[in-house]
Design goal:
Chain A is of the alpha/beta class and 270 residues long. Chain A contains 9 helices and 7 strands, in the order βαβαβαβαβαβαααβα. In chain A, strands 3-2-1-4-5-6-7 form a 7-stranded parallel β-sheet, with helices on both faces. The longest helix of chain A has 29 residues. Chain C has a 7-stranded parallel β-sheet with strand order 3-2-1-4-5-6-7, sandwiched between helices. By secondary structure, chain C is an alpha/beta fold. The chains are: A alpha/beta (270), B alpha/beta (243), C alpha/beta (245).
């Protein structure tokens, strides 16, 4: 394997890939020789990205897809399969967060989270599983919030959908391991999620800086490129032994116990 | 603490109380002095269980309704609160599971499964938790499958439901522990999976009920957001050397 | 954009046990990516053989004879490496103690041997190399333990016991090193010490297993994983998440 062209001629599908993390993955994968296709609900951002991707690879494509509608998902997947055949790599970045305490959680936002976070991944998997199985190989990467395995305030229902998605991803891994398909999750910390943007916007710079120092081992915000690098590792042959595993990209947030206080005291005494 | 009567005078709501696990939990709680209300879908099954419960404690009752519908759930909760006056313990044992992987499991079945397991747990918790906050005490026990943390082929939908409930338990307890409302969950191998486990034999509903009793009483008052696997160490089992 | 063909260009790396199949794969992978490697081996022949294979790629690399059961020997190893390397920024601990005995068969000596090789050796190398990494705000430490921590195998209690301590040490070092950008991670390897194949697992894998392991070590050593610290990665083809074997 050439380490500067890890995904040479591989077919890659990135769902919800027109912005943020999906975009970073698309550009990195394309620079490693992959043939990248994007599916997203945002037409404008998708076409912008397609323009950039064409500089690497003429065959790149953008599909418009509505994740909430199973017909639209099936239609898009069928079009992808007839254009490229079964993908070697599928990266799913779809997710939506409506934070609320559970007694104030609205029925509509609960339904939307279940629909977009769990069901959309299931719908796409349903279309891609058969062809990928026939191909006897491939890698699937699911972007998940690390609330799936940690606890936090005000995200009960969101955390539930993420926990469900994580367990479902691991179950897919067991189903398709005998066919050589690797299924892994990347567990994103708060600084890489939409919450990170909110903190960066609403807090003063100094205050935000202090927040990262207090809550994370690595005292800064994460970068989308760092997520893309991890996805590249899992997508390429570098990660060939690894399946059903969650990769935390969160600056060590989940391994700190009582993060607010302990580190603070330690720093004050040092 | 009276170890013969651990839940004396407490009010417990058991969803899915006419199912095998829910029924075992309700009977054990009643034996330990709790006033139990069971909520389930099938009317005749509910009546049968209530009859058994009343032989232990006259104050027990049960209601039947659709557990997939948010309005019907709100109504059931109203009935339960009227019957009990308040709520100290909520056990979410309602659930139905269908095996199948991404290809064989139909989307509609999956949606129904999520509704019955995950959404009903969230909706019941949402309806009952304000009473617990007012009382400054409460114990929520969610019961689900052990596929939440360990996986096996052909169980995508079950894993999704179980994983969601475990993550929900952990997150919800973070929000309400300031009102002394604890949430914990119990995972067990659902019917029909025969696996090799270090401890021989399969756990029955009574084993799950014992764990649920422990989480509901004062013995576990410092345990929150926890997951207790009642599965004979199945997920730790890697096999004998040389096998 | 980083150079993915030479991920460790100009870096100095230490691998405590470069002699077994997994260790030698790691040494070769590091050399391929432009690092200068110092590695311990148990006998001169193995050392010469591996050095011969990487001599062209990384002429300054060297080996030292090292028995992880000998604590004075480890101190000596660290001292010699520090003399020859200006700054070590990658440290790989891959201890190897493994004896197939049940609890009743094991003796006090076995216990001491396991703790020295699988636990104390890591503490000693950390003590030697962590300080300079922290002062220079740059470094990656990778501790390789075993997936038997989560999935114990019958008849090897001390392997699980001694490997189980590595995770805690990893997280606490990561906590300390975080603000100095020293990253510390643990790999729970499905390859038993000294073996070259994974224990049975659900995943169908083509090609060499130790290569795959070396690739993960490379990923964690390089800047590709610059936001990952304090984590434990299971590399066993999905065996850990399997409900039953």
């Amino acid at each position: 394997m050439r380490y500067d062209k890890m995904l040479q001629d591989k077919h890659i599908l990135i769902t919800a890939g027109a912005s943020q993390i999906g975009k970073a993955c698309a550009l990195l994968f394309a620079s490693h020789g992959g043939i990248v296709a994007i599916a997203d609900k945002d037409k404008e951002a998708g076409n912008d990205l397609l323009h950039q991707l064409k500089e690497y690879q003429e065959d790149s494509k953008f599909y418009h897809m509505d994740f909430t509608c199973s017909d639209s998902v099936r239609d898009t997947c069928d079009r992808y399969l007839s254009d490229f055949g079964a993908p070697d790599v599928w990266v799913n970045c779809e997710g939506v967060c409506h934070p609320a305490f559970i007694d104030e959680q609205e029925e509509a936002s609960l339904r939307e989270m279940i629909n977009l976070n769990i069901l959309s991944a299931f719908r796409i998997m349903k279309c891609l599983a058969g062809p990928m199985k026939e191909k006897q190989g491939g890698a699937i990467i699911q972007m998940i919030s690390d609330y799936a395995v940690t606890g936090a305030n005000g995200v009960s229902a969101y955390g539930a959908t993420m926990g469900g998605l994580f367990a479902m991803t691991n179950s897919f891994a067991m189903d398709y391991a005998p066919y050589g398909i690797r299924v892994n999750s990347i567990l994103l910390g708060i600084s890489l999620s939409a919450m990170g943007d909110i903190i960066a916007d609403e807090m003063e710079d100094e205050e935000a800086e202090e927040f990262w120092v207090r809550t994370q081992m690595i005292p800064r915000r994460g970068r989308v490129q760092e997520v893309a690098d991890t996805a590249l590792f899992l997508a390429s042959d570098m990660g060939k032994l690894i399946t059903a595993e969650g990769f935390f990209v969160n600056g060590g947030q989940n391994s700190i116990a009582h993060n607010q206080h302990y580190r603070w005291n330690w720093r004050a005494n040092a | 603490m009276d170890y013969q009567c651990l839940l004396a005078g407490r009010s417990a709501i058991v969803t899915g109380g006419a199912g095998s696990v829910g029924r075992a939990v309700a009977l054990l709680y009643a034996t330990h002095g709790a006033n139990v209300v069971i909520l389930d879908e099938d009317e005749t099954e509910v009546e049968k269980t209530v009859k058994d419960l009343r032989e232990i404690n006259q104050k027990c009752s049960g209601f039947a309704g659709n557990l997939r519908d948010p309005e019907s759930i709100a109504q059931l909760c109203d009935y339960a609160i009227n019957a009990l006056g308040t709520a100290d313990i909520l056990v979410n044992a309602a659930g139905s599971y269908l095996p199948g992987d991404a290809e064989t499991l139909e989307e509609d079945d999956f949606i129904a499964m999520l509704d019955k397991n995950v959404n009903s747990t969230i909706r019941f918790t949402k309806a009952i938790i304000p009473y617990m906050c007012d009382n400054r005490q409460g114990d929520i026990i969610n019961i689900t499958s052990d596929l939440a943390t360990a996986s096996m082929p052909g169980t995508a939908g079950i894993a999704a439901c179980a994983g969601a409930i475990v993550a929900f338990t952990r997150n919800v307890t973070m929000d309400y522990i300031r009102y002394r409302v604890r949430a914990n969950c119990i995972v067990y191998p659902f019917d029909g999976i025969e696996g090799r486990r270090p401890l021989t034999g399969a756990p029955g509903p009574e084993d799950v009920a014992n764990a649920a009793l422990w989480y509901a009483c004062k013995m576990s008052r410092f345990i929150i957001g926890d997951m207790l696997p009642v599965n004979g160490g199945m997920d730790y089992f890697a096999g004998m050397r040389g096998e | 954009m980083k150079n993915y063909a030479k991920l460790l260009e100009g870096k100095y790396a230490v691998v405590t046990n470069g002699g077994d199949p997994c260790g030698s794969a790691i040494v070769k992978k590091f050399a391929l990516h432009g690092a200068t490697v110092a590695f311990g081996v148990r006998d001169i022949e193995t050392g010469e053989r591996i050095l011969g294979e990487i001599a062209e790629l990384s002429p300054e690399s060297f080996y030292l004879v090292l028995d992880l059961a000998d604590s004075d020997g480890i101190e000596e190893f660290c001292r010699k490496v520090k003399e020859r390397f200006p700054l070590t920024t990658v440290l790989v601990n891959n201890p190897y103690a493994d004896i197939g005995k049940t609890i009743t068969e094991t003796t006090e000596e076995d216990y001491r041997y396991f703790l020295q090789v699988n636990q104390r050796s890591i503490m000693q190398t950390l003590r030697a190399f962590y300080g300079p990494m922290r002062d220079n705000k740059c470094g990656s430490i990778i501790n390789i333990s075993s997936n038997t921590v989560f999935k114990p195998i019958m008849g090897n209690p001390f392997l699980t016991l001694s490997m189980g301590t590595i995770g805690g040490l990893t997280r606490v070092t990561a906590f300390e090193g975080g603000e100095f950008y020293v990253r510390v991670n643990e790999i729970l390897s499905g390859i038993l010490p000294g073996q070259s194949e994974l224990s049975p697992c659900p995943l169908k894998i083509e090609g060499s297993h130790v290569e795959g392991m070396a690739d993960l070590v490379l990923f964690l050593a390089s800047d590709m994983s610059s936001y990952i610290t304090g984590q434990s990665f299971t590399v066993d083809g999905g065996a850990r998440r399997q409900l039953f074997a």
